[in-house]
């Protein structure tokens, strides 16, 4: 199996937890911004896109970093977008970061703006556009704890894994 999963997400949706669970179940690594930036600075890569293309030579999960666009033409890549209702995201961040409601809401809005700008600046496309993904998972409706299982069952049914 050389499945590569790109996972774009709104801040506070529980996507990191979903990625970690998928990583355990599929026995493949998760690469996030920190890992990719470290690779870029510690190696001879010219940009993040080059790092992502290299990582995608093997089965893995890549969180964000415009990976869905960078890897859009590769047949072994499955693109997922994780979303949730804003109030659910606020509650998750309040709990995770021990913040007030207003502080959590402000942090979410700041992160969403930054992610949207980063995506547009690097792709010229709108972040979160459903036409860029194979599957959209709403953790408010489905529960973040169920999303990895949903993906696993889909991959099994489609005989991807």
Comma- or semicolon-separated keywords:
161 residues, alpha/beta, Rossmann fold, five-stranded parallel β-sheet, 8 helices, 5 strands, globular
Structure description:
The protein is of the alpha/beta class and 161 residues long. It has one domain: P-loop containing nucleotide triphosphate hydrolases (Rossmann fold, 3-Layer(aba) Sandwich), CATH 3.40.50.300. Helix content is 54%, strand content 14%. It is built from 8 helices and 5 strands; from the N terminus they run βαβααβαβααβαα. It has helices at residues 15-26, 33-42, 48-55, 67-70, 86-97, 101-123, 139-142, 144-157, and strands at 4-9, 30-31, 60-63, 77-83, 135-138. The protein has a 5-stranded parallel β-sheet. The longest helix is centred in the last third of the chain and has 23 residues, at 101-123. The N and C termini lie close together (6 Å). The model has no long low-confidence stretch (mean pLDDT 95).
Strand % is: 5-15%
The average pLDDT is: 95
> H/E element string?
EHEHHEHEHHEHH
Top CATH class: Alpha Beta
| Unreliable spans | none
* Biggest sheet character: 5 strands, parallel
**What would the principal axes of the Cα set say about the shape?**
globular
What strand order characterises the main sheet?
A: 2-3-1-4-5
**Strand segment count:** 5
How many separate domains make up the residues?
1
